[in-house]
Amino acid sequence: MLDDVDLTCEAGEIHALVGENGAGKSTLAGIAAGELSADTGEVLRDGRIGLVHQHFALIDRLCVWENVVLGHEPRRLATIDRETARTFVRQLGERYGLDVDPDALVEDLPVGIRQRVELLRELARNPSILILDEPTAALSPGEVERLFSTIARLTENGVGVLVITHKLDEVFAHAGRVTVLRRGIVVERRPIAEITREQVARAMIGGDIPSIPPHERTNGAVVVRVRELVVPGTIENLSLHIAAGEILGVAGVEGNGQSALADALAGLTPFRGSIERPAAIGIIPQDRLVEAVIPGWSLVENAMLGRERAAAKGSWRIDRAAARAQCTAIVERFDVRTTSIDAPLATLSGGNQQKLVVGRALIDNPAFVIAYNPTRGIDIGATATVHSELLAARNRGAAILLISFELDELFALSDRIVVIARGALRGEFTERRFDRDAIGRLMVNA
User: Fold this and answer.
1) What integer pLDDT is reported at residue 113 of this predicted model?
2) All domains in the chain, ordered by first residue
3) What is the pTM of this model?
């Protein structure tokens, strides 16, 4: 996984660590933070290293202050001093611009606020080095800006910050140095001022970035129609349509009804109003570990989830040979890197897990696809593969609903973009005339 890797992160710097999925970035972070053991080598640290994982490690049933002080709770005699804990969390948030209600239940919080809680939990332990693993994977543009403002405050106070990311815009906007890992080996390490974006991208994937098919314009019939959709407490009187051969992008700050819209279209939640759509659809859920896969199962078994009928070939029993052939087709077409299709999915990097999920949704060429943050946490090469496959599906005539917190992704793929805020559509942009500032204002309902 890692081979003779050297890395330093200095006090007061932002150091970017980049590389393909499976390059060893998260493994290196786990070793540095003491969560994993290395076969050889050593970790030298001055002070404590804090690690914020890509997939949060919070306890959902506890409130914010309980998560933040867990393991070092302030005491009053034999009991936890709850008021002192609340005050501590509130003041810590104010100091770093991470305001959050100390009494809020974590399970009720949107992704952006959960990340604040993760940061507060690590900052409460006064780290000298803070490692952030894909910190902006599910954040809106405004949340990304606030996060890097917080990181700037940390570096001003002497904290070294190691940011693991696939987003080169963030690397070149904020980092002072960049280290590139490829297949467990450091292949590049330079100050940002001495390297170009293209050189970093080529170092990450070992060659040129895969090209994507042209964005062909079609005029198909309406395939999906939503009329006056109501999901109590989430969506109010929402209407939209998607034509064959069209990608409809949905822009919005996380937690404004996107999940309810996707779930209603997938038939997973009760609603009022009407939805017309094809019976067979492909779904790329927003959180693969919660909604899409079973990590302990093999790639073959995960590739069958939701597609059991395709593997059964009209029988009541699954045709194992057919299931293996279908899984192999997904692995080969979507470049899922694995030692075996019989290996547990948990042995794959997050990006390769995501490519399997995307491949499972698209392999049967469905007429309608729901793609929810389809490239969350995956590298440049994998993102190009996913984008290419979504555009190819669109060019074959599929109607695609693309929900993404990445405006650049929406701009690159969408034929139209609608903006959702507080459970209602606030605006529509057509003919690929997308105004970033106007969309941003509508996202916050300004």
Assistant:
1) 84
2) 14-205 (3.40.50.300), 210-280+366-446 (3.40.50.300), 292-363 (no CATH)
3) 0.74
